[in-house]
Amino acid sequence: MSKIIEQPRFSCALGAQQSVVAIPRAVPIVHAGPGCSGKICALIGQGEGYAGGSTIPCTNASGSEIVFGGEERLRGVIDGAFKVIDADLYVVLTGCTSDIVGDDTGRVTRDFQDDDKPIVYAETGGFKSNNYVSHDVVVQAIIEQYVDKFKDEKATLTPGLVNVFATIPYQDPYWNGNLAELKRILEGIGLQVNILFGTESAGIGEWLTIPQAQFNILVSAWPGLEIVKRLEAKYGTPYYHFPYLPIGGNETSKFLRGVSEFGGLDPVKTEAFIRKEEEKFYSHIERTADFMLEFRYGLPRRFYTILDATYAVGFAKYLVNELGILPAKQYIIDDTPAIYQEAIRDHFRHVSELRSAEVVFSVDGGEIQAEIRGEEHKHRSLILGSGWERDLAREIHADLLPISVPITYRLVLNCGYAGYHGGLRAIEDIYDRVLDTYR
Amino acid sequence: MGKINIQAPEATIREIRIGSITGFEGTAAQLIQCGREGKLHESTRSFSQCMGCSSGNAFCQLSMIQDAAMVNHAPVGCAGDFFSFNFVYRVGQMERNLPPVIGRYFNTNIEENDTIFGATQKLEDTIRQAYDRVKPNAIFVTTSCASGIIGDDVEGVTDKMSIELGIPVVACFCEGFKSKVWTTGFDSAYHSIIRKIVKPPQQKTNKINIINFWGSDIFTELLGKLGYEPEYIVPFSTIKQLERISEAAATIQICSTLGSYLGAALEQVYGVPEIKAPLAYGIAGTDAWLRELGKVLGKEAEVEAIIGDEKARILPKLEEYRQQLKGKTCYVTAGPAHGHALLALLRELGMEVQGAAIFHHDPLYDNGDQRSDMLEHTVKTYGDIPNYNVCNKQSYELVNILHRVRPDLMIARHGGMTLWGAKLGIPTLLIGDEHLGFGYQGLLNYAERIIETLDNKEFVTNLAKHSTMPYTKWWLEQNPYTFLGGSVHVENY
Predict the structure, then answer these.
(1) What's the mean pLDDT when you consider all of chain B?
(2) In the prediction, which pLDDT does A297 show?
(3) How far is CA A50 from CA A20, A22, A32, A54, B401, in A?
(4) Interface of A with B in 109-138 (CB under 8 A)
(5) Domains plus CATH for chain B?
(6) If contacts are CB pairs under 8 Å, which of residues 358-387 in chain A contact chain B?
(7) How many interface pairs between A and B have CB atoms less than 8 angstroms apart?
(8) Which of residues 300-359 of B touch A (CB under 8 A)?
(9) Which one, of A429, A396, A391, lies nearest residue A410 by Cα?
(10) Could you tell me which residues are beta bridge partners of residue B391?
(11) pLDDT at B227
């Protein structure tokens, strides 16, 4: 499989700067070349947030840092950041320049840590991985270097408290909405939720209670696995893994039942919440089923996904089982490590009781699009992809719902596709696009 | 002022070539004087925020050539700006009634192993793939910090691939770490064009090169009256057009910092005269610019007629706007020389300019001609500009200054800056079309937008009421130049 990338849909390791931006009142300090941070924001940074975008402190490595090393420069920028930027947590992230020349960023950071400053560092030189992987690295760095140091040593395990590791902020353009819905439904079954990122998080104080959680919840195909495994080894916190985004009635209820059983929650309470939510959810579906059955001028009958594994499986299960749109080929673009690919294939093998779908793993959007173009397009289809699919959709008469970055054609605030609310939102958004094509 | 050497694979960076700097505080007149006396010092900041880099600016110019493909030899993060440029490209297609086409941009995806063993094979494979998929008339290869530091022989690969594929495969060296002045990336892009694409002239044409981004077409009418046609370069041109830019009758700069290198190179290498005058902003600037254009083209009489007609047309309306804007204060943040042009325009409209944060400073452009110094023209025509800060997008300095100055209006030319005016409740204007303020009509265009912005206070007032500020109280009370210091002498010109 080709490793060159036409039409990139994720960032490099340094892309995890956006994970930091997503923590309330946290700020990245980027020790890298001058353009890195801006390029990351260009792809996965719609909106500057609290201290992202043009606010991000950066050493802007120049020739002299390459030749003589950039440690002193970094020290100056960290020192300035504490004075100038009003934040609760500072996260030093390295780029290609400092990682290749071998700056001892850890040493520089430790000097500030020794003064009990809220600062951590992680090596995220762009070439080392991508942001699906480095998100884990950065979260672990915060836990090891900040949480462990400042947590309440006397605090004991809090029954009913969970840490949720779900989407990768900004890489998932709908991260904030998705996290908000996950928190809402988990609270609905009686849990107390550390959501850690976004508007529903209480910020760094919440992070300090990570070790007290009764268990961790991972909603993700594979990113984040390193985090929950590490937390299990470290604090003995068990984890519940739901390997795709739960969208709509079926899967969200399944997710909640799984969590409830894993955490030994009161099944009566869980079922009561599920019943109430399903009632609302299906009343909308029922109310509009006639539209989906009767609209005679053309609705998409099959779908392509060009998404990361977490979204791809989640949407496939939802579209097939709850909307009756059938899977064409499914493309997974998150550079899934080989060891996780079989599990994902397996989900598509059993996407419904009656159906399976073919999966291709590729990071090369150009190659994917060429393949789709080469197929026969007898029926109107739906593409769940990115802004790159604009022309492809027009050419094959498909409707496009951008779910992946680059998301450029949509402005995202609190929209999300997770859970019951997200399922309804997905229906609105898909058919909104369909109906909008008529004159 | 060095001669441009098109034999060398790389353009010399601006700091060395023309003595550009990125840090200064004082007045505009002081800055100009320092430049003239060779006393300009680079000042570095001990605290800094993220800037732009050359590779983005190089990509910006090359990625919208209609029949070329781009290969970015870098880790995937460096390709984060692909879609932004693709978007601009497609907006421009709409404006030009071109069919929708996607930008064909490839990234070599340099990974950890490649930093040890080199990535030239990957580069070769990517170029081949790009060729197979796109069948372009040229391929440009932009480099990165990673490819530069590991020492990949990019020029060797592009030379080899040019022969194999039978099209120009051109290396554009634009590693981010090499220059603090990100407009160096424009120079890199133009260097690769002048070096490998442009052919020696066979005849003179009635075309006039206009080095611009992608602004609206305002030159067809003007040049048409003089018997010439505009050739907008480099975005939206084709390789065939670029091959022939050596045959043009003249070159016009829409922003001297953008086109400095290409304008000078075309004149030095192929004798295409560059119009050396202030930019056509404000009445005096437009007068001077048009007269120089007339002189170079031998159309003095026609130009005088245009000047007369146009001024008569706009002056009554301009006077009206001046009355409305009298006493209004404003602050500008932009790159040079467009920023200098905006300063002239605002002063022409009778506004009080309280200061400016301009991204870098080129004491003179590659043509070495003082007439092209728009800042000098502005100061001479309208008087000095106080609080003139050379500042490469350091928003912490900007916020600090705005916090004290509190102008009636902020004008920003680049993204990431407007927020800081608005969060303080200051009406803020960003105009994307770089041609909007050009010429006599440009004064009216801008005045109209400024009045509209000044009038529209509800949004910023409400935003300010509900905004957070990521800067500390301590910082907002300090001298804005607290972190600016540490001189590095620049004496290369």
Answers:
(1) 95
(2) 84
(3) 11, 8, 21, 11, 20
(4) 126-130
(5) 54-179 (3.40.50.1980), 284-485 (3.40.50.12380)
(6) 363, 366, 370, 387
(7) 233
(8) none
(9) A429
(10) B23
(11) 97
Nearest to B48 among A12, A58, A391 (CB): A58
Q: Comparing C-alpha atoms, which of A238, A52, A229 is closest to residue A139?
A: A229
* Tens-digit pLDDT profile for residues A129-147: 999 999 999 999 999 999 9
Q: Is the ipTM of this complex over 0.90?
A: yes
What is the pTM assigned to this prediction? 0.96
Look up the CATH architecture of domain A13-150.
3-Layer(aba) Sandwich (3.40)
Quote the percentage of chain B above a pLDDT of 70. Answer: 98
Using alpha carbons, select from A60, A30, A59 the residue that is nearest to residue A45: A30
Q: Do domains A158-271 and A278-435 have the same CATH topology?
A: yes
Whether residue A101 and residue B149 make contact (CB cut-off 8 A), yes or no, is: yes
Within 8 A by CB and 6+ apart from B83, the residues are A7, A8, A42, A43, A387, A388, A406, A408
- For residue B273, give how far its alpha carbon lies from the nearest alpha carbon of chain A (Å): 34
Three-state DSSP state, A141: helix
A430-434, B220-224, B412-416: least confidently modelled range:
B412-416
Q: Do A95 and B474 touch (CB under 8 A)?
A: no
A83–B475 CB contact, under 8 Å: yes
| Cβ within 8 Å of A, B 356-395 | 393, 395
pLDDT value at position A2?
A: 56
Contact B46 A126 (CB under 8 A): no
**pLDDT of B489 above 80:** no
pLDDT value of residue A276: 98
Chain centroid, CA A434 distance in Å: 27
Instruction: Please state which CATH class domain A158-271 belongs to.
Output: alpha beta
The answer to whether B146 contacts A76, with C-beta atoms less than 8 Å apart, is: no
Give residue B493's pLDDT.
Answer: 31
Q: What's the CATH superfamily of A278-435? A: Nitrogenase molybdenum iron protein domain (3.40.50.1980)
- The amino acid that residue A217 corresponds to is I
pLDDT of B141 strictly over 80: yes
Interface mutation vs chain A, best among B21, B42, B49, most A CBs within 10 Å: B49
What does the block give as tokens for B10?
């790389």
Q: Which tens digit of pLDDT belongs to each residue from B126-136? A: 999 999 999 99
Which residue of B77, B178, B469 is in closest CB contact with A126?
B77
Is any Cβ of chain A less than 8 angstroms from the Cβ of B94? no
Which parts of chain A sit beneath pLDDT 70? 1-2
Taking the Cβ of residue B459 and every Cβ of chain A, the question of whether any pair is shorter than 8 Å is answered with no
| Domain ranges across chain A | 13-150, 158-271, 278-435
In what side-by-side order are the strands of the sheet with B250-253? B229-233, B207-211, B250-253
Residue B53: predicted pLDDT: 97
Tokens matching residue B366 = 């590659």
The pLDDT-based confidence of B156 (bands split at 50, 70, 90) is: very high
Q: Is A337 on the interface with B (CB under 8 A)?
A: no
